[in-house]
Every structure is written in structure tokens, then in C-alpha cells.
Amino acid sequence: MRIEVPARRRNLISLTPLIDVVFILLVFFMLASSFLDWRGISLNMPPVSEVGRVHDGSLELRLGVDGSVSLDGEAVSRDAALRRVGAAVSTEPDRLVIVRPEGEVRLQTMVEWLEALSGAGATNVSLRQG
């Protein structure tokens, strides 16, 4: 008498749950991340020989902690300062604009001013310690 042992059936691993998990992770990371257009602002440091030197014909923009703005020692509004800088750089494109933040001015405020000055046409902008 011969006893036949049934052939052992091989268990197959289904890939469907794995694909579902990968898809859910993909959707999660797509929704959790932000796709903003980050732009860098190039800041060039002046040479050591020019750090303390005052440039003739430059515009000096002082930013106060309380939001006050003065251009060449005269208190002005933000719009007036940008208009004056725009007018000055339209006649002389390489004119230096020195931005001097005072005390504890927020970095975001300085970045907003640098972007606004760039929008006004200023290409030669220097950030100095107030």
C-alpha cells in the first residue's frame, strides 16, 4: 500500500497591502511637505579695507526697532524711502544703498527691506551693522 503525501502548497505573499501602505505614505508626504518657491538673497561682504569707510553719494537707510525708517538722517515712511531710492538709482544705477538695522531689528524685517529695495531697482545694497 502506497500512501501519497499531498504536495505542500506554497504560500504566496500578496503585494496589495504593501502597495497600499506605500501609496498612503506617498500621499502623506505630498500633503505634509510644502512646495514653495524659495529664493535666496545674495549677500556679498565688503572687503576688510572698506568696512569702516563712508562712501560718498551713498544712501543710508536706518531701520529702527519700533519700525521707524530714516533715509540719510531724515525720518520718512516706507513708501517715501522706496520712492527716493528708486529715483536715485534710476539716474545712477550703481549707487550704493547702505542698510543699517538698529538694535534688535528682526531678520524678517531686514529681508523684506532687501526685497523691497531690489524691487525699487537698487542693485548695489550693503547691509552694515547699525
Automatic annotation (TrEMBL):
Instruction: Give the InterPro entries listed for this entry.
Output: ExbD (IPR003400)
Its chief place of residence is membrane
- Indicate where this protein resides in the cell: Cell membrane
Keywords on record: Cell membrane, Membrane, Protein transport, Transmembrane, Transmembrane helix, Transport
Spans traversing the lipid bilayer: 12-36
Family membership noted in the UniProt record: Belongs to the ExbD/TolR family.
Q: What is this protein called?
A: Biopolymer transporter ExbD
Its source organism is Alkalilimnicola ehrlichii
